[in-house]
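Lecture notes, unit on binding sites. The following record was shown on slide 14. It pairs a sequence with protoporphyrin IX containing FE.
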Amino acid sequence: MAAFDPWDPDFLADPYPSYAELRARGRVQYFEPTDQWLVPLHADVSALLRDRRLGRTYQHRFTHEDFGRTAPAPEHEPFHTLNDHGMLDLEPPDHTRIRRLVSKAFTPRTVERLKPYVSRLAGELVDGLVRNGGGDLLTDVAEPLPVAVIAEMLGIPEADRAPLRPWSADICGMYELNPSQETAARAVRASVEFSDYLRELIAERRKEPGDDLISGLIEAHDEGDRLTEQEMISTAVLLLNAGHEATVNATVNGWYALFRNPAQLAALRADHSLVPTAIEELMRYDTPLQLFERWVLDEIEIDGTTIPRGAEIAMLFGSANHDPAVFENPDRLDLTRRDNPHISFSAGIHYCIGAPLARIELAASMTALLERAPALTLAAEPDRKPNFVIRGLEGLRVEVG
Ligand code: HEM
């Protein structure tokens, strides 16, 4: 299957024409290199995300042996222990219990209160970029904003924040397709260090609680024994990683798309009230997280193909977001697009808990850049990260103009 080659730099540069070919071939196709069933259509992805016959994990119902899979290598255990106790890799009832606790901190109303802080921070970061006449939009604005916001919410002291990005990057390497031994070793090291750090921080907060989310989780744990220590650590890591990784990429992918579509950028500069629809459209147009997987817990059928228990489905979010059955002129960037049911934040029980926060952060950095750097230009063609699932750039050099 030449249409789908997630390791080919040409595919990574622009996967969307290949997706069109995949969609034309049918609703489901087996992909041997990863032993997965690819699903490229919006209607199917949207339905499967809500289908309880599928799960992010199977371990709540089956052993590895039952499922025809091998247990992870013992030397990779620290990564799996960390990952498997976060809500993203849990299914009900554990998922429900943890999500209910954490969701209080992320309701649209709670997050709305963070708006002035996020806007102020975005303004300060953009002012720094302007003072230097330009720089790297990734390291100067896109990255420090969501890292500071999520670290602040969790109560990670400023002096401790430097390793958060490298830990996250090393752990996220495991979410790519067929990760190498070297990637796994890096993820294990980061999992051990990150977990040790949080275990100590939790011990400190237990002695001296603050009004941060970690103290809140401890309180819930101590009052009703509703979170184990491992779940607390895994929740904190998930929030810290998921809380910035995709937002960083959405920001730089979005600005790179704007620079390549100068008429759209000009329209946005002329009318800042387009910011909310622009953010949704940029997340659809160049989808920050391209693929999500589900295990088949109970046999399903797609378009006459039976997919048995134990198989794995790979839902192609980037393809679903360019499906012409749902989006008119899907390969056209249209910042005024109103009917935009993109799937970038997922759907069903794992729908992104941080979506309201991500939207506030993306709006804050975009508004600050439009207002304070109104003639921003691309200074050099960026290098793309060699990743498929987490789609991003190595950097984005800009000049203030
Ligand atoms: C543009 C930015 C973001 C994008 C595109 C994004 C996307 C997603 C997606 C697609 C999922 C579900 C994956 C699946 O169904 O398998 C998800 C889940 C999640 N996201 Fe986000 N996310 C973003 C920002 C954030 C932020 C800022 C946070 C802050 C805390 C966050 C926290 C989470 C968590 C905790 C989950 C797991 C939810 C669950 O399993 O119930 N995300 N995100």
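Take-home: The chain has a mean pLDDT of 95.
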